Amino acid sequence: RTVRRHRYDTIADGVGLDRVTHNFGRARVDDAIRVADGDALLMAHYLLRFEGLFLGFSSALNCVAALRAGAELRRRSPEKRPVVVTIL
Question: Who is most buried in 1, 5, 16, 62, counting CB within 10 A?
Fold first, then answer.
């Protein structure tokens, strides 16, 4: 017997929904970065092991997205050193 995955199945509650919640309705979003559960889980383990940070899944997801954003900025402008800040 197999279990069907719902299209919103994820480890982090509320992440990946395609609806806009009331508190986010007026936000101006420039871009979004898709992060797989496995990538965020690897980051959570990395942050604990190498940085000593015991963080939740959404914080690890945030770090993966920040690294990807920095890599994309670097790709667009190789002569500049981008600075990406995220709050955990």
Answer: 62
